[in-house]
Amino acid sequence: MFDTFWFDTLKKPFLMPPSEVFAPAWIILYLTILISLIIYVKTFSRKDKTQGYIYFVIQLILNISWTPVFFSMENIVLALIVIVLLDIFVYLTIREFYKVSQSAAAILIPYFVWIIFATYLNLALLILN
């Protein structure tokens, strides 16, 4: 999908997982994101869910944007900006989902932890390179 030659030449941080970890992790995380959204959509609530949907869409756009920014554009700084914004909007999504469904919010916690870790990796790659 993406040419990883550039990435392979970068100095890696101490906690960088092997490349083989990322695909299975993201498959699981995308499934949990989908399950969380389905629960949120199907949960009846008297509360307005519009803000939750807005935050969800923004975080999804940021999530999808990070990979081409990092790997295609090879722009570690811009990728860091994108992932910090992603951290913020995933937090906001969790907060809004919690108002309607604690389950929908809780299911997003592993995703949030993973992207915080990914933010560390992005920052470490910037510092090391």
Q: Report the biggest beta sheet as strand number plus sense, adding barrel if it closes.
A: none
Query: Percent helix among the residues?
Result: over 70%
Which blocks of ≥5 consecutive residues have pLDDT under 50? none
Overall geometry comes to elongated
How would you state the average pLDDT, rounded?
96
Terminal CA distance: 23 Å
Strand-pairing-aware structural class: mainly alpha
Determine Rg (CA atoms, Å): 16 Å
What's the short version?
With 129 residues, the chain is mainly alpha-helical.
Write a concise keyword list for the protein shown above.
6 helices; mainly alpha; 129 residues; elongated; 78% helix
What would your notes on this structure say?
This protein has one domain (27-128). It has 129 residues and is mostly helical. The two termini are 23 Å apart. It has helices at residues 5-9, 22-42, 50-72, 76-100, 102-107, 109-128. The mean pLDDT is 96. It contains 6 helices and no strands.
Secondary structure layout plus pairing:
Layout: H1 5-9, H2 22-42, H3 50-72, H4 76-100, H5 102-107, H6 109-128
